[in-house]
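Re: beginner question about structure tokens

> Can someone show what the tokenized structure looks like for a real chain? I only ever see the sequence side.

Sure, here's an example I had lying around. Input first:
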Amino acid sequence: APIGSTLDRARLGAIFNRLADTPTSLLAVRAETTAANSLSARGFAPRTVEGFVRPLLAALLCDPELSTSSRVADLVLRGFARGRTCLPAGGAARLPELLAAHLPPGTIRFGTRVAHIAVDAVLTEDGTELPCRAVVVATDARAAGKLLPGLRVPSFHQVTVFHHAAPATARREPVLVLDADRLGPVSHTLPAGTIDPGRAPAGRTLITSVVLGPPPDGDNDKAVRAHLAELYDTGTDHWELLAHHTDPDAIPAMPAPHDLRRPVRLLAGLYVCGDHRDTSTVQGALLSGRRAAHSVLRDLAPRPPDPIPGGPARRRQQSGLSPAPPLLPRPRLRPGRGCGRGAVGVGTWGARLPGGGGGSGVRVPWVGAAGWEP
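And the corresponding structure tokens:
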């Protein structure tokens, strides 16, 4: 689809340059509506909206209807204008692998499901109790809601990802290919093997494509390959489907009004992080994890000696206050092997797919215990 005249393209560049230079603090206080309604107010030409901006935002937000908050859309477009889209070298699992490499051996327990949590302990399904000074719930929103009753669980955008092995001659420049005409099931696709050759099978390249919703033909990729033939302008009859997977809860929805900074500290000793606490992006998940880590460090930092003899109890007596009731009762935990009084993280690990697919991975539950002995 055409994205407009030379003047329209110049206007697009000017708008993106202004977005890139706008502080996020200003974008976060703009009048809020849906992303779809905000496009005309941003100054884009109509042809530019339909031919480029709308399909780009749909791809970046995984939201074909653009019902996402306009503030989130502005932040995402700002990030796009300031840099390039990228992939982690080696696949989605590389980031957690690099983080785990700095932990002592045996810190992470794979395949360990958590039954209950409290501010000072985690109980696994096999009855093992892990005492600790802090618990960080770093899971998807639905799993976090089960472990933390009362936590808001958003609605979700379903995403299906296809990984195809294609002849090496199908390579093209490493760009994000958008379906601006919206005539097929594929929202966007990219030659992942060109960007990161380590993902591709030997002698071939890897094409990763995204459908915003369920797979159009179930386990059959016929409609997807037909659409990819148009987008890449090449035959796809001999492309091999390596893997495809669909996730109904892939992307937490962010409709207006959307809180860009949901609390990560629920109580002293109990924290939650993930893309459902900030923006529903990898960047949002990382930022919420950093915020949760800072909260844990602040709460576990050594306190200076209390200048009043008797400490808090003495102060309550002097002021006539009675002790506050506990905010979160600790469940009755059965005894088991502990791991020291450290901080326990409960989360899921993004694993690589078979066949060279290194995109959104399957989720493997894990429990990590960092031994922060005082």
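Each token stands for a local structural state, so reading them left to right follows the chain. The radius of gyration is 24 Å.
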